[in-house]
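User: Fold this; tokens only.

Assistant: Input:
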Amino acid sequence: MISPRKHLWDSQGYDQQMYIEDWLLKLDLNENVMGPSPKVLEAIKNITESDIKFYPAYGELINKISSVHNIDDNMILPTNGADEAISYIFSTFVEEDDYVVSVSPSFAMYEVYAKNMNCNYVEIKYDEKWKFPVDKFLRRITKNTKIAIITTPNSPTGESISRDDLMQILNACSNCLVLLDITYSSFAQDDFIDLIKQYPNIIYTKSLSKDYALAGLRIGYIIANPDILNFIKRIISPFSVNTLAIKAAIAALDDTDYFENIKNNVKKSKQYLTDELNSIANVVYPSDANFLLADFGQKAEFIYKRLLNSGIKVKSFLNNPILKNCFRVALPTPSQCKMIVDTIKEKKDLIVFDIDGVLVDTRESYRKAIRSTYEFYAKKEISFDKIQETKNLGGLNNDWDLTEYLLKKDGIEMPKVQIIKTFQTFYLGSNFNGYIANESLLINPEILKELAKKYDLAIFTGRPRPEAYYVLQRWNLWELFSVIVSMDDVPEDAQKPEPYGLHKIMDIINPNKIYYIGDTIDDMIAAQKACVKGIGVLPPQDKSEKLKQSLIEKGATIVLNSTEDIADVVNIELKQPENILNS
């Protein structure tokens, strides 16, 4: 295989979307979902043959941008989006030994382009959410700094740098460039473009995706001192901005009345959504941009998935340590903001699923791991019927406990930690290639997707977290379950049949009715203790009347022969594909 440059081996690429996603509201990338000016569409409709057969010309667009910002034409360079603008700046000025300074969190592409140049990329963390860390930033400006990057307003945090703080940085950066990304400045009080007359080392980058709704046409520009632009022009692609984008941008910038209406709607939406989310979120952060960042605490995953399964996509930062439990919402119209709030506040019924024997057939995985571990130490065989019979006794929190119980019953004493290690070797293999790879689903994913549109779905399982997540990610089910409670989330003395896990779910979700679907008597006891409706399901390895009666005796209000019958129990009609197995 042909190798790339060495420093790219550990880099992560940017995933491009393959198709336009069909969402009720798509609010994850800060696009202007209110759409472009009608004059933009009219301009595109009037494209002529000459517009297409000849290379594009940029003069009219440059004249329009210069009049908007009150600067000279020779200070403007159109680019294929602000991404290309930033890439050009790095490619023109940054070398391997140089340092580039930015804050974190901020726009991810700065780091991508820095890695591409193999330079030293320095991220300054915030001390206070979200106040620009000017003192720390200034301390990292040295003689080796080539570019200091400031995004104002910043994404995803939403704050603008103050003019005083910016002036301090500019005064400290007389020997380096200051890249000022003003992509969101149309919604802020200040774009700072007047400072270019005082500080010739400023470079501004701007996109027309967020404010003028031209994301699909990919257009942006650089504003800089002509001497700086002349260097950048030495490495640019000659015609990277196409004629459709040019004509659309001119029409968009011309329609000032339409854009003022967009800004007014953003302002109203921001105020409404802030007021409403303040009663739900831990914090709704102030924003000078066309989006809001909010911290939803322990309810973050539930709310994110509730929105997702209702057709509303926002940007999740759930696994980001700096932005833990936060997500970002691009601001739609005020009426669409009400849809967001109504979706979050709606009270639904909740269906909680166990995994083993309910969502997943474990006959060739967990059951085999129990048998293999037992036989490894006992040096004799054990039947699957004997394992299931022991499982049906209840009181054994997980399959490690069950294996230990079987060994002790036969007089074999082994340290629990050793049993677990051996069990996991059989079950997980070296990299999830052990018995776990033999598992199969017990319910068609389409049924779960339909259920998730009407109900909140959650998981309460005795599996360790990595094994639970493996199942959900393997079959692309993770987004369907609003809350996932695993063995790792429950104290050792509060595992099933104790209801701790169900109570944990109910602390996050406040539903109407609650169903808990499990295949063991411990599941039903836990449901009864939590005062929720227990629904038993017969696992593939035991469809006996005896187990059915045991589940009913321990509180099951109904026992299903198949998990797929849940669709009928909760009174939902599904159009099931012909290949779904009949219960």
